[in-house]
UniProtKB/TrEMBL annotation:
<keyword id="KW-0732">Signal</keyword>
<feature type="signal peptide">
    <location>
        <begin position="1"/>
        <end position="25"/>
    </location>
</feature>
<protein>
    <recommendedName>
        <fullName>Secreted protein</fullName>
    </recommendedName>
</protein>
Amino acid sequence: MLPSFFGLRHMACLLAASAMMPAGAQTQQDQPANNYPTTARVEYVGECMAKNGGAQAYLYKCACAIDQIAARLPYDDYVESSTFARYATLGGEGGAIFRDPEYGKNAARRYRGIQEEALHACGIAPATRAAR
């Protein structure tokens, strides 16, 4: 038997409150584990679309790609590895910090692999390269 503080009035309030939640509302537990900030997602999609001619169809394909990447790579790892990948070809002494360390090479390679798989899964042809 339930304790007395779980009276009918209390149960009615709980039921009313739960009924007010939108049907599609997500709880904290339903959120993706590697949820990226909106600004990071928008930046990726914008760069991806630009590199693919800016066609509206790429809005959906590029959004799909960043979702695929986010599902496999925690945000902090994404920032680090995509930075290494982006600046790996930077010349001069300034670029050495991105080019030379073995850790950076591995991070860039990992990111590029995950990104290539995401682009393929989302219908972006290998001939067109998205945001790196």
